[in-house]
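User: Structure tokens for both sequences below?

Assistant:
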Amino acid sequence: MKILVINGPNLNNLGSRDTSLYGKKTLIQINDDLLNLSEKMNVDLSFFQSNHEGDLIDFIQQNTPLANGILINAGAITHYGLSLKDAIIDSKLPVVETHLSNIHSREDYRRVSVLESVSVGQVAGFGWKSYVYALYLLVDYLNRDN
């Protein structure tokens, strides 16, 4: 089983970016945690981060044929990225959307996710553990689907 782990804008700055909202772990540390967990789950992860929506779309389009699912934190693109949403729809892969902070308790514009309606679920507000929970949920979903 292969899962694409996709991160959007500014997530490369985790660890130094507003730690009161996003925690102290870097994206590399989060990816390492996911990699360790995925080995125990017999799951192959492919990581990608970009500050550009088009790069995220290119990655999805190029890697969809080899993948079973997508775990995505699209960052701010979550709230307006209709072309990213279209790429996810076109992939026909199950998606779990994740966020470090609870987007539903933040500013009004952050409460809207254009990806939510094309995701099988969303995990938000548990800091770096949001990624861990999202991975568990996506793998469980994929196992049930097979």
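Moving on to the next sequence.
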Amino acid sequence: MSTAGATAAAAAAAARKRREQEEEEKLTTYDSEDLKGWEFKIVRSEMGKFKNRQFVEQVCKEEAQAGWEMLEKFDNGRIRFKRRIERRAQDPHLQIDPYRTHVGMSGGALALIIVTAVLAVVGIVVLTIIALNS
């Protein structure tokens, strides 16, 4: 992948993230009655793992330990949860982070893998050119 290609991919990813954030803001509007006694979060999967029904069920089971209930699945990368505020009192006794917002590989780890792969390919190409010109 060229530098221009990597730049274009990064720009496309940023644009997608902005669209998703705008969509979430539109879909997650609450009035004061909705918020009374509830808290909300969105759990993300950078690799689109929520397309797998069993994975979704596992994540929901884990979140239920902290009192989180699935409200909706936006797409294969995002699920929205809610829970009663009173459940916070049990947080110190949990085996999981009740406020986790990512499952699977994080966006930073994915970006690191992509950058490493691109640099490896560029390095191989450079070494091949040097070897051919020697």
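User: Anything stand out in the second?

Assistant: The longest helix spans residues 107-133.
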